[in-house]
Amino acid sequence: MALQNSLDALDRSGVVLFPSDTVLGLGCDATNQDAVNTIFLIKNRPQN
């Protein structure tokens, strides 16, 4: 179920949160500019 929810979110230009070794990571479809922009907004980073 969680995997399907993540795949559905990625299909909708969404962002997924996943555990890594030490922290939580954010992921998206790197070929989708809207999704990448969302990561920048979440992390409060400049677009350049």
If you had to describe this structure to a student in words, what would you say it looks like?
It contains two helices and two strands, in the order αββα. It has one domain. It has 48 residues and is an alpha+beta fold. The radius of gyration is 11 Å and the shape is flat. 42% of the residues lie in helices and 17% in strands. The mean pLDDT is 94. It has helices at 2-11, 33-42, and strands spanning 16-19, 24-27.
Tell me roughly what share of residues is in helical segments: 40-55%
Count every helix, treating DSSP H or I runs of 4 or more residues as helices: 2
* Extended strand count: 2
Shape: flat
Estimate what percentage of residues fall within beta strands: 15-25%
Low-confidence stretches: none
* Rg measurement, Å: 11 Å
The number of distinct structural domains comes to: 1
Report mean pLDDT, rounded to a whole number: 94
Strand order of the largest sheet: 1-2
How does the helix and strand content classify structurally?
Answer: alpha+beta
Strand/helix succession: HEEH
Largest sheet properties? 2 strands, antiparallel
- For the termini, the CA-CA separation is 36 Å
